[in-house]
Design a protein that fits this description.
The complex is a heterotrimer. By secondary structure, chain A is an alpha+beta fold. Chain A has 13 helices and eleven strands. Chain A has a domain of 179 residues: Thiolase/Chalcone synthase (Peroxisomal Thiolase, Chain A, domain 1), CATH 3.40.47. Chain B is mainly β. Chain B contains one helix and nine strands, in the order βαββββββββ. The two termini of chain B are 21 Å apart. By secondary structure, chain C is an alpha/beta fold. Chain C has a single domain, classed as Rossmann fold. Helix content of chain C is 27%, strand content 18%. Chain C has five helices and five strands. Chain C is globular and about 35 Å long. The interface between A and B is large, with 42 and 42 residues. Strand 5 of chain A pairs antiparallel with strand 5 of chain B.
């Protein structure tokens, strides 16, 4: 199997021009597993592996693709409960279970090899190892299909979190700070997107005016959109959409960051099916075309990311994306940035200048009509805040909006292009999708 | 405050040795004339390591931003909550920044923009860390 | 400049009518005991379900305790949960608002039961005796 690092698939530099496969790759299927708060430790039909296979099957069924047609599988073996989540429950309960759950594979970790074996995918010729998360895997899948490494490619993002917690226990329970943590945790930064973004957000409010609680309309709208997303955690678990009072009275976590600014860790899996534009014509589902993909891995200058760095990084990401897609801000209809903490989304909105929003304008924009039925249907997916920390709602909503199948979330404005991402400001990537190939 | 105890490694040992002697020593790239913190194997700007040396800095800075940790995840610091976490920029090179709990400044009373100076705090016998105090 | 200032919230969001509670509104000299229940991980209705059943809640209420909930769940959710189980409670407050409960109700002893470090933190901050929802709370169900 190829290691992902041996394949030069990334579009992570300035000046790369219009993507060579623009409009020649399509997404023809998508599938979400149920979204659970945690794994109960006994239901073998609710393991991360079972959920990943279910998501794949749904994506294949949507497209009318059978197992023997799959020749590419791109699946990262990251999981939120592990090192990135700092959880003590990194590993599954012991003793293990009957095959295929007789090791960590299928329980806490899922990769292409495990899926190929357990789904009986006999014709896979491209299944790289060492993969990044969904933000970059969508780009890799698109590039691999465009480059001809495979023609019908499943991309799976297993978002495992056995105990439904985040950054509790593990190294955060330690008395000592090793490695990169020696520069952060002695003072209290236990790591994560919340710390990355809360300082720039605080600088943002002082630079441009506005207060933290001006995020309330955005957070509330995410919850509303989440309730319109039938597969999401909020909709399937009867989570009340919050009110302004709920928001402004809620508990602080990293003041001014409130509990409702944070997304809910969940256990789930999502699959997308990529193929060539030519093959897509014969499939069940209306194709959604990939117009560009970009990645980045910006290095912070010092200990803490500052507002000016984040504005530079997000401006760079937007420039690369628009250049590669051959589009401008006015051309983008659906905009689904990452919201894994509400405090970061304004940086993307302003960098991509969606609906003309410039630096410093986001909080005022949030105060306007950003509902899915209004003129500025911002983050129509509901994002992580509205569906749980799936990190995939941004992608599947974009696909559904372009297909015209978003149901109660379907926007009333034009829906022919969409931008989606899972990204911190420094790492990750974006994908531009189109209803039409050109 | 029972802060977590930093564990020096090969690249950070000169830094922590200096801190334990109550001195603030940062990496300096002779090629770029640029200070660097945290320490790294190469200069972040020119990506070369052959001209990296250690340079003592004055330890004067300003508070660029601050938050209050009310629900942190570090077991060792649970009893401290709520506590300040500030981002302090170094006057000699404001692109260099540090975290600070700002000892002496009560939570919610952080004077963002104020001048600070480095101070040193013992977190374990013989192990100091650099902290910042409002001037 | 101070950071993180926010709007003040009204004291106690849902004062439901309850005879036992009214007898112990602050200023009254007859003192009862008060138990605050966290929800998730504490009550059987929580996510994850906790050890304390609604039957147990009714039992402790029958023993004369002033009871209510204190959770990160929205107040509207808390209110609906109690209504669905036909239990009238004295208070439904957010996790960090136990001080309001104490200000509102005079009690001989204030107890908060919850399963996280934040339950412990806020309970102790506001002068409540904290219990994890395990067998350490069994004595609360003995007649007072």
């Amino acid at each position: 199997m190829t290691n992902a690092n041996d394949y030069k698939w990334r579009r992570d530099k300035d000046g790369m021009g219009v993507w060579e496969h623009r409009g020649k790759v399509a997404i023809v299927g998508q599938g979400h597993s149920p979204v659970d708060r945690r794994w109960d430790g006994v239901s073998m039909d609710k393991t991360l592996g079972a959920y990943s296979m279910l998501a794949c099957q749904k994506a294949m069924d949507e497209a009318g693709v059978t197992a023997d047609q799959i020749d590419g599988v791109i699946c990262c073996d990251s999981h939120i409960a592990g090192p990135s989540g700092g959880s003590a429950s990194k590993w599954a309960p012991r003793p293990y279970f009957a095959p295929p759950y007789d090791s960590e594979w299928g329980l806490t970790l899922v990769n292409a090899q495990w899926l190929i074996k357990n789904m009986g995918l006999k014709n896979v010729k491209f299944a790289p190892t060492g993969l990044p998360t969904i933000s970059e895997m969508v780009g890799m899948a698109a590039q691999a299909v465009g480059d001809g490494l495979c023609t019908t490619c499943l991309m799976i993002y297993p978002c495992g979190n056995l105990e439904g917690r985040y950054r509790r226990g593990g190294e955060n329970a330690d008395d000592y700070a090793k490695g990169a943590r020696q520069w952060t945790v002695p003072w209290g930064n236990h790591g994560g997107n919340d710390f990355i973004n809360i300082f720039p957000h605080e600088q943002y409010c002082r630079k441009y005016g506005g207060q933290h609680d001006d995020l309330a309309p955005f957070v509330i709208n995410q919850h509303k959109n989440g309730m319109l997303t039938p597969w999401g955690f909020n909709a399937t678990h009867g989570i009340d959409p919050i009110t302004v009072d709920d928001y402004v009275n809620s508990r602080f976590i990293l003041r001014p960051l409130r509990i409702w600014d944070c997304d809910r860790p969940v256990q789930t899996s999502t699959a997308l099916l990529f193929t060539t534009a030519d093959r897509a014509k014969d499939m069940k589902q209306k194709p959604v075309y990939v117009l560009n993909h970009n990645q980045y891995n910006f290095k912070k200058r010092s200990t803490q990311e500052s507002l000016d760095e984040i504005e530079l990084w997000t401006d760079t990401a937007a420039k690369r994306m628009y250049e590669g897609a051959g589009l401008q801000p006015k051309d983008v209809d659906i905009f689904n940035p990452y919201d894994g903490y509400s405090i970061m989304t304004q940086f993307y909105l302003e960098a991509f200048q969606w609906h003309g929003v410039k630096r410093g304008d986001a909080l005022k924009f949030y105060a306007g009509d950003i509902s899915v039925k209004g003129p500025h249907p911002f983050s129509s997916s509901g994002g992580n805040l509205g569906t749980g920390r799936t990190r995939s709602a941004m992608y599947t909503d974009s696909i559904e909006q372009l297909r015209g199948t978003a149901g109660a979330r379907q926007v009333t404005v034009r829906a022919e292009t969409a931008l989606a991402a899972f990204t911190t400001p420094s790492n990750g990537g974006w994908i531009m999708l189109g209803k039409h190939p050109s | 405050m029972p802060k977590l105890i930093p564990v020096a490694d090969e690249s950070s040992k000169p830094f922590w040795d200096a801190v334990n002697a109550k001195r603030l020593l940062l990496q300096h790239c002779g090629a770029c004339n640029k200070l660097q913190y945290p320490p790294q194997a190469t200069c972040q700007k020119c990506n070369k390591g052959d001209q990296l040396t250690w340079k003592e800095v004055q330890g004067k800075g300003h508070i660029a931003a601050a938050i209050t940790i009310e629900d942190g995840r570090l077991n060792r610091r649970m009893a401290d909550m709520p506590y300040n976490l500030a981002m302090v920029t170094l006057d000699e090179d404001p692109s260099v920044n540090f975290y600070a709990n700002l000892p002496g400044t009560p939570p919610y009373k952080v004077p963002v923009g104020a001048a600070v100076e480095v101070t040193f705090e013992e977190v374990a016998p013989g192990q100091l860390i650099h902290e910042w105090r409002v001037v | 400049m101070e950071v993180g200032l926010h709007r003040a919230a009204p004291i106690l969001t849902i004062p439901l009518p309850l005879k036992g509670r009214e007898a112990n509104i602050k200023g009254d000299t007859s003192l009862a005991k008060l138990i605050s229940f966290d929800i998730d991980g504490t009550l059987e209705t929580g996510d994850p379900p906790g050890r304390i059943t609604m039957v147990m809640v009714r039992q402790v209420q029958a023993l004369g305790y002033i009871i209510g909930s204190c959770s990160d769940r929205t107040v509207s959710h808390q209110k609906r949960m109690w209504q669905q189980h036909g239990i009238e409670v004295a208070f439904t407050v957010l996790k960090h608002r136990l001080d309001e409960v104490k200000a509102q109700y005079a009690a001989e002893h204030y107890v908060h039961i919850g399963d996280t470090n934040m339950d412990k933190y806020h309970a102790e901050l506001h002068g409540f005796t904290y219990y994890f929802p395990d067998n350490s709370i069994d004595h609360l169900w003995e007649p007072i």
